[in-house]
């Protein structure tokens, strides 16, 4: 094989090359794969997650076959700018809220051309995408975050997306303070638009919440607060002010603990598992105040009864003494 200048090779390949024409009249199969470098954040307030990954897509374009050039290489690695000079499937993450290509220190993209016409394009991306959150079981819930890949310009007759036989690789263990990655799965579908069908490839990440923080910050403190409010049962019935202070303080403590958790959650119209726990705690504490009111009222009735009985006894004694004096002639 002969060594040929790379510029001459590119010029030979792109001679009469039309980037607007598909590599095949029968459509192009695009194989995609992901290498996840890290999942950096999950936000309940905004309902999304962030991840860094290397995204690869592979397709065949026989117009870029250079085997006939008989050079001393089976593949050629080119900068990402070369994408502008050849046909590309224009795949995008259709459901992303924000995405960008890493530029440290330069744009993290490249293209490899193989001698048999295979094209391998690679990007290193940072993406923020939505998560499906159902907080009914919070903090014992799980969430699903999804990426959806789709060709922005070509329908399913022109571009078909397929996952690689090893579609996703986790390059490191995902460590998040609030969540644990428990699994992922890939899927494929066709979506009907007004102007035709589009191919879609999806990947879903499932996370389970780490609930240890909420046990120590919410469940245990509220349990102790409720138990503390029961101490008033052992107070003397005359210590009503102390019982009221203890009950009201317990209510304020539970409300404060609950509010500190709610600040980090989105507003939801349905009842969460934590809501049931906190409402139950508030009901228990409120019942101690109701018990105090009932005991104080009963004690008040008992005192009035005792005072009334004492007055009647005095009146009876006075009458008895008066009758005794009359009989004895005094």
UniProtKB/TrEMBL annotation:
Domain Neurotransmitter-gated ion-channel ligand-binding as annotated: residue spans: 8-210
Pfam families: Neur_chan_LBD (PF02931), Neur_chan_memb (PF02932)
Subcellular location, record wording: Cell membrane; Membrane
Name the record gives this protein: Uncharacterized protein
Superkingdom per UniProt: Eukaryota
GO cellular component: plasma membrane
Main subcellular location of this protein, as a coarse class: membrane
Family annotation (InterPro entries): GABAA/Glycine_rcpt (IPR006028), Neur_chan_lig-bd (IPR006202), Neur_chan_lig-bd_sf (IPR036734), Neur_channel (IPR006201), Neuro-gated_channel_TM_sf (IPR036719), Neuro_actylchol_rec (IPR038050), Neurotrans-gated_channel_TM (IPR006029), Neurotransmitter_ion_chnl_CS (IPR018000)
Transmembrane region(s): 211-235, 241-262, 274-295
Record-stated family: Belongs to the ligand-gated ion channel (TC 1.A.9) family.
Domain Neurotransmitter-gated ion-channel transmembrane residue range list: 219-320
GO function terms (MF aspect): extracellular ligand-gated monoatomic ion channel activity; transmembrane signaling receptor activity
Lineage, opening ranks: Eukaryota, Metazoa, Ecdysozoa, Nematoda, Chromadorea
Membrane topology: Multi-pass membrane protein
PROSITE patterns to which the protein is assigned, alphabetical: NEUROTR_ION_CHANNEL
Keywords recorded for this protein, A-Z: Cell membrane, Glycoprotein, Ion channel, Ion transport, Membrane, Signal, Transmembrane, Transmembrane helix, Transport
């Amino acid at each position: 094989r002969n060594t040929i200048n790379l510029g001459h090779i590119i010029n030979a390949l792109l001679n009469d090359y039309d980037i607007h024409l598909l590599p095949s009249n029968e459509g192009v199969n695009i194989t995609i794969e992901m290498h996840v470098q890290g999942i950096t954040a999950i936000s309940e307030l905004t309902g999304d997650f962030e991840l860094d990954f290397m995204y690869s897509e592979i397709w065949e374009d026989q117009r870029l076959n250079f085997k006939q050039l008989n050079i001393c290489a089976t593949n050629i690695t080119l900068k990402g700018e070369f994408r502008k000079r050849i046909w590309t499937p224009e795949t995008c993450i259709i459901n992303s809220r924000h995405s960008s290509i890493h530029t440290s220190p330069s744009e993290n993209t490249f293209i490899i051309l193989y001698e048999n016409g295979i094209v391998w394009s690679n990007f290193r991306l940072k993406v923020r995408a939505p998560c499906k959150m159902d907080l009914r079981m919070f903090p014992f819930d799980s969430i699903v975050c999804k990426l959806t890949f789709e060709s922005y310009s070509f329908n399913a007759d022109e571009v078909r997306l397929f996952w690689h036989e090893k579609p996703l690789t986790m390059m490191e263990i995902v460590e998040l303070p609030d969540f644990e990655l428990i699994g992922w799965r890939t899927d494929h579908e066709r979506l009907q638009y007004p102007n035709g069908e589009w191919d879609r490839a999806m990947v879903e990440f499932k996370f389970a919440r780490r609930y240890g923080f909420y046990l120590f910050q919410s469940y245990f403190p509220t349990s102790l607060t409720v138990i503390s409010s029961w101490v008033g049962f052992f107070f003397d019935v005359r210590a009503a002010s102390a019982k009221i202070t203890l009950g009201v303080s317990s209510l304020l403590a539970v409300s404060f603990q609950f509010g500190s958790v709610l600040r980090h959650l989105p507003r939801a119209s349905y009842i969460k598992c934590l809501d049931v726990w906190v409402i139950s705690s508030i009901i228990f504490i409120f019942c101690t105040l109701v018990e105090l009111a009932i005991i104080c009222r009963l004690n008040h009735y008992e005192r009035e009864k005792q005072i009334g009985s004492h007055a009647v006894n005095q009146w009876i004694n006075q009458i008895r003494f008066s009758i005794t004096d009359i009989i004895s002639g005094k």
